[in-house]
Each structure stands twice: as structure tokens, then as C-alpha cells.
Amino acid sequence: MLYKFKSKVASDVIMLEPNGRQILQLWGRTDAASQQKGILLAADLPAAISALEEAVAQEESRRVQAALAEPWAQEKGEDSAPSGVSLRQRAAPLLDMARRSLAAGKDITWGA
């Protein structure tokens, strides 16, 4: 399943279902109906942007801590280095959309 986020001031952002659901949960959209289809009003965008930026900062902090612990993990034969695509990379297009939408006073909609 894919999520498609839309705004009148930016290109569509398409995300795989687990990543889109993660974003929606950060925005407080936890019920099944909100995760299938919904709207983020322009008035709610500042809080949504802040929530997403805070989650990105927390993940980066965990990645830094894991990287600092890596020399000790390697001595023990463990692999503690974070791998994969970070939340910052996944969220960048959506943060751009949210900032543009906020500046223009436009809503963001999504559907699965």
C-alpha cells in the first residue's frame, strides 16, 4: 500500500505504507480512518512540522549515540551502526510540502 500526500502548492509526495503511517502517527492521526484518508488543515501545520522535526532530531541523536558506541561494539563482535534510510531523508520532501503549504495557507491531504 502507498500513501499519497497532496497540496496545492507542492508536488505530491508518495510514501510506502509503514513510512506514511509513521508520519501520520507523529501528526496524531492514529485511528484507522485517519490513516486511510485525511486532511491536515493549514492551521495545524505548525504543530505538525514541529512534531516531525522533533522526531527527526530524536532519531539523529540515537544514531549519534549508536555511532559513538560502535568501537566498543566492534570489539565485542556486535554491529551497532545504524543502517538504512533515516527519518530525515524520508521526511524531507514532506517537510518541504508542509512548509510551503503553511506559507500559502493551504491544507495537506492524503489517501492510501
Count of helices? 4
What is the count of distinct domains? 1
- Shape descriptor reads elongated
Helix content: 55-70%
Strand content: 15-25%
Gap between N and C termini, in Å?
Answer: 7 Å
How many DSSP-defined strands? Answer: 4
Instruction: Report the biggest beta sheet as strand number plus sense, adding barrel if it closes.
Output: 4 strands, antiparallel
- Elements, N to C (H/E): EEHHEHHE
Adjacency order of strands in the biggest sheet: 2-1-4-3
Query: What is the structural class?
Result: alpha+beta
Low-confidence stretches: none
CA-atom Rg in angstroms: 16 Å
Gist?
The chain is of the alpha+beta class and 112 residues long. It has four helices and four strands; from the N terminus they run ββααβααβ. Helix 3 runs antiparallel to helix 4 (87-104).
Write the layout of secondary structure elements.
Layout: E1 2-7, E2 10-16, H1 17-26, H2 32-36, E3 37-40, H3 45-76, H4 87-104, E4 108-111
Antiparallel strand pairs: 1-2, 1-4, 3-4
Helix pairs in contact: 3-4
